[in-house]
Amino acid sequence: PGAYCTITVIYKSGPSQAAGLGPQTADPNGTVTWQWKVGSSTARGVWSIVVTSERQGEKETLEIPFEVR
């Protein structure tokens, strides 16, 4: 809860600039959510989502693969 969280969606062409990918603060349950649209011209393949959270001087990063079909 209260962690400052960022997300980077990395496609073949580089990091996404899509609306909705701004920083978020985790709610009292420790939850953050992001929503964005994947353009119809986005290359198919497996890309990465990188989420970083920071709270009280501690930083954690998680990389998650996702597939565009």
Name the descriptors.
49% strand; five-stranded antiparallel β-sheet; mainly beta; 69 residues; elongated
Structural class: mainly beta
Number of strands: 5
The share of residues in helices is under 10%
Order of helices and strands: EEEEE
Contiguous uncertain segments of 5+ residues: none
Beta-strand percentage range: over 45%
Q: Which overall shape is indicated by the principal axes computed on the Cα atoms?
A: elongated
Report the C-alpha radius of gyration, rounded: 13 Å
End-to-end distance: 34 Å
The number of helical elements comes to 0
Q: Could you describe the largest sheet, including whether it forms a barrel? A: 5 strands, antiparallel
Description:
The protein is mainly beta. The protein is built from no helices and 5 strands. It has strands spanning 4-11, 14-15, 24-25, 45-55, 58-68. Strands 1, 2, 3, 4 and 5 form a 5-stranded antiparallel beta sheet that branches. It is elongated.
List the helices and strands and how they pair.
Elements: E1 4-11, E2 14-15, E3 24-25, E4 45-55, E5 58-68
Antiparallel strand pairs: 1-2, 1-3, 1-4, 4-5
Summarize the structure.
With 69 residues, the protein is mainly β. The chain has no helices and five strands.
